[in-house]
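re: ur question from earlier - yeah i can do the single chain one, its not a big deal. heres the input i used so u can compare w yours
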Amino acid sequence: MAQSEELQILSLLAKEWDFSGPPGIMDIGDIVSALPQAPSQTLQALKRLFTSGLVDMNALKTSAFLTPEGYSAVEKHRMVDK
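and the output i got, formated as tokens:
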């Protein structure tokens, strides 16, 4: 499925989805600061997730959120880890 950086982003957005409800929207700056990786890696991973349809962004590209497919991907990964 996703690379490590992508999986970290998906997991973070899924946690936001679980606590705040769908679609798990977060400011991109908050995503970058929450993850233990270089900001450039996070932004590249977000772009890959956006291109693959697992994450969507607001019109200004300042916030990102999970699509239903992105949340399903995280759920599948959670099931594999159990």
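The CA atoms of residues 9 and 31 lie 7 Å apart. not sure if urs matches, ping me
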